[in-house]
Structures are given as C-alpha cells and as structure tokens.
Amino acid sequence: MITEYWRGYIRQRGAFAFLYLVWRKFVSQFISTRFLRCDSLMLCGDFQISGYKCINIGKLTAGSRFRLEAIIYSGRQEFTPEICIGNNVSFGSDVHIGCISKLSIGNNVLCGSYITILDHNHGSYSPHEILQSQPNSGPASRVLVSAPITIGDNVHLGEYVVILKGVTIGSGSVIGAGSVVTRSIPAGCIAAGNPAKVIRKFDFAKNKWTLQNNDDHAVNE
Fold first, then answer.
1. Is 96 an annotated catalytic residue?
2. Separation of alpha carbons 211 and 175, rounded Å
3. Under a CB-based contact definition with an 8 Å cutoff, are residues 193 and 149 in contact?
C-alpha cells in the first residue's frame, strides 16, 4: 500500500523517480548482507564501499556518490579499522568517510552533502613526533597517522563540513555549513568556522541557546 508520503513524492517527482528508489532499495538490501552487521540500508545512488566486514550499521540512508572506506591496507601499512554507525543516520550526496582506526557515529544524526570525515592524514607533522614526514617525499608515500573520531547522538552536520582525526562531537551539537572541525566540540553546542569554534551553547536551566564570547554570528546549517 502506498502511503500519503509516497503519493506526494510521486506527484512531485514522478512515477519513474519512485520506481528508481524501489530499485535502489532492492540493491541496498543485497549490499547490506556484506557488512559485519547492517539492520537497514538505503543507498540512493552510486557508491564506493570497502572493508565491509569492519563496518557495523544500524539504519543508514545515503545520497549519490557515497564513499565509505574502512581501510585495511595502505602501501606497507596494515590497519584494523572499526566503523560503527547508529540508527536513523542520514547523509546527503557526495559524502566521503575514511577510517583506519576507529570511527563512531551515534543515533539520529543528520548530515548534509559534500561532507568529509577522515580519522587519518597522510604524514606525521606534529613537533612532538620523533619520526616526522619530510617535505621532499611524495604525500601519497607518507605513512598514515590516525586518531579516533566520535560523533554523538542527535548531531547535525551542515553542508561542506570537514571533520578531521581525533575529534569528538558531543551529542546534540550542530556544526555550521562549511566548517572544518579540528578540535573536539562539547555536547549541546553550535560551532562554525575554519577552524570550527563554539559560538552558542544550550542552557538547559534557561531552556535556550546562549551566545559565547558575545559573538552573534549566524549559522547556516
């Protein structure tokens, strides 16, 4: 039986678009059997997935050109990646997720398009590291260096957000469009910018969002 939602979908986009989604759901169900665990999957377009047996999914919907990589080998390096995605997680189109260490995404996470989430980078550049990458070597040949990423429940990532290694985003937080998250963001905050900084925080006592540092920047989600 076609619900009111799908009747409206057909009226707005046409029967062909509806039939295409039905076909994509069939393909997604077949693909879901390849993961370590996957309760529900909807891939709305073309995709590139690697390391299936290192990926645990509750319920995920993703738009076109979805790239999900649990990287086991890179050159002479070998990794044991773990990707865990919760229930009711939704990504737009052109999303790239790459993991060589550990990546956890909670429940009810809504993400826009053109998002990049990487728990690693090519090369070691920290002044605290003994072995640092040399600028006269090709970036592709440098060792991959990683740190786990955790995204809590009820997080909203705007369009074009980039999340880099070692970052934790607390539950209920919002990351504004175009932000580059290089450091952890506490729960119940709105962060924006490059690098992303907290600009608002939810005050549960007052039941309202409060400004941080008297800075009333607008956030486009």
1. no
2. 15
3. no
Domains along the chain with CATH numbers:
13-124+139-185 (2.160.10)
User: What's the predicted TM-score (pTM) here?
Assistant: 0.89
CB burial of residue 93 (10 Å; 0-12, 13-18, 19+): middle
φ/ψ of 5, rounded to 5, equals -60, -50
Residue 7 structure tokens: 């009747």
Least confident of 60-74, 88-102, 111-125, 205-219: 205-219
The set of residues, in sequence order, having a beta carbon less than 8 Å from that of 39 and lying 6+ positions away, is 57, 58, 59, 87
Give Dmax over CA atoms of the chain in angstroms.
64
**Residue 196 Rama label (left phi>0; alpha psi -120 to 50; beta):** beta
CA dihedral angle for residue 32, residue 16, residue 108, residue 33, rounded to 10 degrees: 0
Record the tokens describing residue 44, joined without a space.
């709305």
The set of residues, in sequence order, having a beta carbon less than 8 Å from that of 209 and lying 6+ positions away, is 190, 200, 201, 202, 203
- Name the catalytic one among 96, 122, 128, 156: 128
pLDDT bucket at 21, cuts 50 / 70 / 90: confident
